[in-house]
Amino acid sequence: MLQLQSKLPSQGVTIFSVMTELAQRLNALNLSQGFPDFPAPPALLEALSQATLSGYNQYPAGDGVLALREQLAKQFLQRDQLQLDPVTEITITPGATIAIFCAIQACIHADDEVIIFDPSYDSYAPAVQLAGGKSVHIHLEAPTFQVNWQKVKDCINAKTRMIIVNTPHNPTGAIWSEQDWHQLIELIQDKNIVVLSDEVYEHLIFDGQKHYSALQFPELRERSYVIGSFGKSYHVTGWKTGYCVAAPHLMHLFRQIYQFANFCGTTPCQVALAHYMQQHPEHVQELPNFYQAKRDLFNTQIQNSRFQFIPSQGTYFQNLDYSAIRPDLNDVDMCQFLAEQHKIVAIPISVFYQQAPESLRLIRFCFAKTDQTLQRAGAILAQC
């Protein structure tokens, strides 16, 4: 009899699939999974149509369409005054998650340790486990979810090979300050540690604050992978197009893995994005105000409710504290309660932890929605 053991025995169906199925079954308003319910820019959709009609339907270069890599390099130059070589330092990938996976596989060996800040995106730890490494989880400090640097210092040892950073942070919306980056630099500058910086919400920063990328710090330039997502920035999450940026020696290691994990991304999507980015550089510049207006609309709708919240600093997620409503329920049960009794679906924050605090009473809502959807959601939540 065939007997196989799972490499991820503790992994079940993701919470995102569970909550989406629940929303569909109950015909509930779905603010759980992070994707827009409004269309992509018409000019971008037209560019995709033209790309397919013009014959861009076969394999691209494994590292990505050069025109798209060049446009991305221009973005980094304009925003961070960072000069990148699009040939040796940028790889286009089918989404950010595969880029995260390949960066971890490229660097982590058996018994290596990877520091992960919880709550954290759910793909990090499984990727470390599959590489034979060990995830070391450090809780961010609630309610602002900042890093406790003394805890980081205490966890670093000779086995520490990588630290995963996520800014702007999913699921809390917190962002790293320049001081945070300097604290990290001080701790690792003389150690054999790689930084994996998940920056997929890089353009979604609110209230006039600034996004700091790992690559703009000279001390981190040669030891960092930066991961990004065109899907998040251009409202096309279904196109599954992301990127990885790193110094040439790190990119070489990355591409050794990537060529066997997926080989290449989707050609017409890359061609369309390159064309749109060239014609509409203002798009990313307008994103902070665009999404801040949606955050503010959502929060205004619930400001007189019994939910408590700190306005999100970035991403398109807002966390709500429901302690004043149903403190007797954990966050998973609270999401079930809201779905069944109020026909609205959110994500429990505890699923982003290896071991969540028992006192946690936070749930996450996505505000990448039409104003009508946000107004409807606000009306529901205001009655809870």
From TrEMBL:
InterPro entries, sorted: Aminotransferase_I/II_large, Kynurenine-oxoglutarate_AT, PyrdxlP-dep_Trfase, PyrdxlP-dep_Trfase_major, PyrdxlP-dep_Trfase_small
Tree of life domain: Bacteria
Limits of the Aminotransferase class I/classII large domain: 29-377
GO molecular function per UniProt: kynurenine-oxoglutarate transaminase activity; pyridoxal phosphate binding
Necessary cofactors: pyridoxal 5'-phosphate
GO cellular component, one term: cytoplasm
Keyword field: Aminotransferase, Pyridoxal phosphate, Transferase
Keyword Magnesium included in the entry's annotation: no
Family: Belongs to the class-I pyridoxal-phosphate-dependent aminotransferase family.
Name this protein carries in UniProt: Aminotransferase class I/classII large domain-containing protein
Source organism: Acinetobacter tjernbergiae DSM 14971 = CIP 107465
Lineage, broadest ranks: Bacteria, Pseudomonadati, Pseudomonadota, Gammaproteobacteria, Moraxellales
